[in-house]
Amino acid sequence: MKGPETITSERETGNYHTSRPTSRVARSYQKIEDSFPPVVGTKTRGHSPQNAPGVMISAEPRHAMAEPEEGDTSAQPNDHGELKRLCPQIAEDRDPSVITRIGTCTTEIIKMDSEGMAPRMETEVGIPIVVARANGPDHASTQGEDTAPAATAHRCAEHLSVDERDQWPARRPTRPLKPVAALEETNPPLVLSGSLPAMVASQPSSELKRQSVRAAGWLPARRYTDLPSLGAGVYVCGANPFLSRTATTLMRRRKCRLIGAPLPIGPDGTRARTEKICPVFGIQPRGLREREDAMREGSKDYPGLVRGKSVFSMGDNPLEVSPARPPIRCGTIVHEVGIPYMDKQYQAAESAPSRETSRDMCIPMPRVVEKPDNYDQIQRMRESQPDLAITGTANANPPEARGIDTKWSVESTFAPIHGFANARDIPQLVTRSLRRSNVGDPGLYGQSEQ
Amino acid sequence: TKLAHRMHAGPAHVGTLRVASYSKNVHATMHAPLGDDYFNVMRPMPERDRDFTPVTASIVDRHVLARGSQDKVVENTTRKGKEERPDPTVPTPTCTPSTLQEDPQNFACRASVTSDSDVTLADVNHNRVDELQAADRTLEQIVRYYMNKAHGQGTLGRPLTSVPTANIIGIPTLGPHNQHDCRELKRLLRDIGTGVNQIIPERGLVGNPQNLPRARSNPVPHREIGLVAAVYSDEESGTPYISTTPMGILDTANCIRQMQERVGKWAPVPLNLSVNYEPYIDQQTRFVSQAAWSSRSIDCQNLTGKRAVILGYATHAAAMTKTLAREMGIRICRAGTYCKHDAGRSNERVQGFRDEITVTDDHNEAGDMIARAEPSAISGTQTERHVGKRLDIPRGVISSPVHIQNFPPGYRPYLGYEGTNQIADPVYNSSTPGTEDHLLDLPGGHDTEAVTKLPHAPTEKDLIRNPESQSESSKIPKFVRGKIKGKTEKFARRNGITNITVGVMHAARDSPSA
After folding, report:
1. CB-CB under 8 Å, A46 with B127
2. Across the strands, what pairs with B30?
3. pTM for the structure as a whole
4. What is the value of ipTM here, to two decimals?
5. What is the phi/psi pair of residue B390, to 5°?
6. CA-to-CA distance for B44 and B49, rounded, in angstroms?
7. Does B48 contact A421 at a Cβ distance shorter than 8 Å?
8. Catalytic pick from B71, B299, B437, B462?
9. InterPro entries per the record (chain B) (predicted)?
10. Domain holding A277: CATH number?
11. Interface touch B1/A86, C-beta < 8 Å
């Protein structure tokens, strides 16, 4: 037998459409209720989150643009002075527990020393300042959601075992966060990462609780002051495919132990994940297969709709490989899965359930294209004429007008798709436009029905 | 550096793309980092376009930062020339290349050598102009390019068309109701016996800007986009432009009279054209537009002296101010624009029709101004709509920035005679419900809390929710909370559970049948 098989991928030119990482960071900080991220960048940077979250911007968003003017790019005014002028303004208006400076390509090009300025500003303003880079040249879409927890991870308190707590103030002189009390549960602390909405976040936690594994906290937490403590002896596990930098930071800098588990997406993913986590704590998972089967039973009305249909996923965020599994389970043929980037090491665990699914359904693994070229993809799509195209919002209406049903890929990043409880939501999401097509095309009503 | 949450006008390249994307045979290649092609979302989503947006990004990545992007831009521009066969390819720099201090002019020169199609650079400075100004300039640059080219080839259209014709200049994409406005203008021109020589940018092909001189006049419906091109055409070939926006009854008549003057002056004697549009104006005002009669009708009397605030881009804000003040008797306590660059002219045009002026591009300042003015209605952008929502003041959207609901599938022009009807409608609609609220609140309302807070079904009382499950349900977004609550209760009742815990909630979610 060969060694562990990873998902193989091809690579194209990287001329594809995706959202800006900046808007993702802004979204991820929306999760931390007492944070306020100023995005340092030009009008372009401000205009895109304004249009991307669309209506969200009108509801007093918790982010703002610190917009450099022409003089700033020529380094005439001093960056530190300028930001020093703005930060108290934010502190006064919003009273946040943390200010997160989000760097963009502008700050990257003019080589603004954000990381160097932050500690100085922090002492001057009296509010913690976290720096997260989310510039277009280096990051793609959801990678922005990765830099945020990665930057925040440095601010989590040091995890202390019970006997160490006496020397606690000496160990961590900077801003003390809540020390974690001794755990009642038997398992060592487990921190889950990924900025899921509160309702979705409770799913993976409760799934583990069912197996009597307690999750000590989330990174990021709902409030900055509630961040979990980290350190040697803390186990961490990511809930999204794009958290590789966070995972690296947690392992290398905070000495946490990473559990490389599949993502809790789809009933098979959730089952495989729980099966992977429980043994780490010496627990034998119970009743997982039954739950998976029950979930599959619950969504058995979907396969009929999609069996034999074909799907083409253009890819604008890495959250495309795992959600492709449930449709494959339902008998769908997936032509291609495009993704912006793939961390093979971080996503290694993902290949097992994907392979298993393909094997069970007796179809080859879908072709995975990294850094796709949208123009070439459209040509391939034209050739293969899929029943459903999963695309970014930019390329959705045109295929629809050419008779290909379309689903927005971005929905998978904010729709609840994690855990058993949301197992039904993925096929529901994927099949929505197919179901709409079953209703009929109003454009054809004029013709006689045969 | 300044702190901003929301901006009224976008960055320069968006303006360029709005002009380029209106034509089917123009392709823009942006020179931008990954994700900056969000224009590709802005365009097909609100306008529900059936075609792929003709905009491609030449991605600025880490390698480009290190060694410059000339080869990549030239390559991509050439590649698009081959793949899409556009007439012109428009290399569009964003703020990144201007921060990188690259030389787009040079890239455009090199690309024009290797590319099969024409290359017209969008030469706009990101730090100095905004979306509207950039759109204005790009349009002029395309017109200039093709007129120069035609001049060089000796194909520049010189003889005037035999029947009077006009060019409609400046209908870009993503303008609210622009497509309807264009149709209404074409109808208006046809009605007065004037042909349409050229519409730029046109929805179909880029057209033949070298034919522009054949028309007798260039109506520019929106001052912000098109004026520079029209002025250039005037200087080059002497085609006069008309910059009166035909919005509202009086200004539409005004605009038509100006066309009459142009046609009259230029009408060649042999045609023996009688150009008297007065009967047309009279007939349209009395029978097609209902706005004149509506404002006479007794219902509109209640509008007299009501106070309104108007904000938007210069053209629509000024035209709306004049229409509401002159034609409906509404008192405009504040009229303003966020087009700082055109504020002087805009203020001049609304002189005498408003109490005070506001010129700002800061939405907080505009919001505070509205709160202080306490008007009974707001006409503005989507931003002002939200201010109105917060302050509970009736509001209507007349100007960009706009959302998808401002691209209605139904026919809703702002301009021309049908436009007067379409403007009158929301004015009445936003004011009548306002009065309705007032009339309801005054006698105490009929839906008082005592009525609305009655328990819907007495059976709910047998279910107990423990605090933990209550906090869990507070995590559920409001818009689905009711549905999930109902599902949980149904599940609980069916299984004979009286105490709803978090476990029960999860079980209810997991249960496929409920």
Report:
1. no
2. B57, B92
3. 0.86
4. 0.84
5. -65, -40
6. 5
7. no
8. B299
9. ChlB/BchB/BchZ, LI-POR_suB-like_C, Nase/OxRdtase_comp1, P-CP_red_C, Protochl_reductB, Protochlorophyllide_Rdtase
10. 3.40.50.1980
11. yes
